[in-house]
Amino acid sequence: MAEAILEVRDLVKHYPLTQGILFKKQIGAVKAVDGVSFDLAAGETLGIVGESGCGKSTVAKMLVNLERPTAGQIKYKGEDITRMSGRALKAVRRNIQMVFQDPYTSLNPRMTVGDIIGEPYEIHPEVAPKGSRRQKVQDLLDVVGLNPEYINRYPHQFSGGQRQRIGIARGLALRPEIIVADEPVSALDVSVQAQVVNLLDRLQNEFSLSYVFIAHDLSIVRHISDRVGVMYLGRIVEIGRDEQIYDHPTHPYTQALLSAVPVPDPSAREHRERIILTGDVPSPANPPSGCPFRTRCWKAQERCALEVPLLVVPAEFRLAEGPAHHPSACHFAEEKRVVPPDAGLG
Predict the structure, then answer these.
(1) What does the alpha-carbon distance between residue 19 and residue 9 come to, in Å, rounded to a whole number?
(2) Are 39 and 240 in contact (CB under 8 A)?
């Protein structure tokens, strides 16, 4: 793997639960993110998947400093940005930009497209002198596949897919090295999703970008990602190259997640195993002891309640350099192919 441009270590975000009106007393905490670690290499796309409420978006917000972590480190080129403020933080923020989930609420309806895309230049005037800003905005519209003449239009005059392209153009304005895309296609039609994902793919090659790509849709994540991390209840439970995660999953939650992916081929559908999980996702305000997945896991034993499994290569796969040789946070990790080879996933 190439040198890491972003290193995340033991990232934690707990939101306090308080009681009382005048004299507030903390009675607990919502453990939204509870010890997430990963690396992002230059030019790489790391996909993060998991069900709603697992902490994906909170991780995204901490990467761009919209939320301050409770604990942990986020190192950009070796410097911990969680300890930065003022000018140093402003300089780093220029290189880590975000594309938001909802193209309908992330654009100011009172601003023209030119003002929206050009707003980063007001904060970082060194990137574009005032005289060249209009041309730069028009160039960005052209890069994302929109007519440069649309510069004076307002967001309500565009479709959802076009609005998301405007959001991507705004993210590109400062020529960042990393883009955090928080479910950038979940609010769009399927046909438009493909266009936006292909656009992100092309822009990555054109501008040498690194992506942290967060999504629900496993097939989209496989299409765009080099590596994939699977999150459950505030933790990454398995991480590896896309073929390791999709074709050789070793964590039971990843296997259950993949077994829920729709398979278009009826004959392949008949032969695949469906893993139905029982119970609900535990509350992040009161997570289970030990392994967070143990309350829904068919492999759970007494050890799972006592010990938190580490995100490391399982002992049984350490000596073999096969596709199962990747980190998985399970005491009883076991390789299992869930999606048939001809299922058409990715």
Answers:
(1) 32
(2) no
* Average pLDDT value for the chain: 90
Tokens of 185: 């296609």
What residues form DSSP beta bridges with 26?
18
Residues linked to residue 230 through DSSP beta bridges, in sequence order: 49, 238
Phi, psi (deg, nearest 5) at residue 49: -120, 160
Q: Where are any strands of DSSP class E within 233-281?
A: 235-241
Q: What's the gap between Cα 42 and its chain centre?
A: 16
Report the residue count for the chain: 346
pLDDT value of position 286:
92
* Residue closest to 43 by CA, chosen among 204, 168, 284: 204
Whole-prediction pTM value? 0.90
The pLDDT score that the predictor gives to residue 346 is: 54
28-to-17, 58, 286, 287 alpha-carbon distances in Å:
5, 19, 9, 12
Encoded amino acid at 301, one letter: Q
CA 202 to chain centre: 19
pLDDT digits (tens, 9 = 90+) for 260-317: 888 777 777 777 778 888 888 899 999 999 999 999 999 999 999 999 999 999 988 8
Distances (CA, A) of 213 to 57, 86, 99, 172: 10, 28, 10, 15
pLDDT of residue 344: 54
How many Cα atoms are found within 13 Å in the side-chain-facing hemisphere of 4? 15
Which of 76, 99, 67, 54 is closest to 213 using CA atoms? 99
Angle at 90 between CA 85 and CA 93, to 5 degrees: 110
Interhelix angle for 133-143 vs 160-172, to 10°? Answer: 130
Strand ordering across the sheet containing 96-99: 96-99, 178-182, 210-214, 45-49, 227-232, 235-241
Q: Give the pLDDT confidence of 126-178 residue by residue, as tens digits.
A: 888 888 889 999 999 999 999 999 999 999 999 989 999 999 999 999 999 99
- List the domains of the chain with CATH numbers: 4-225 (3.40.50.300), 255-346 (no CATH)
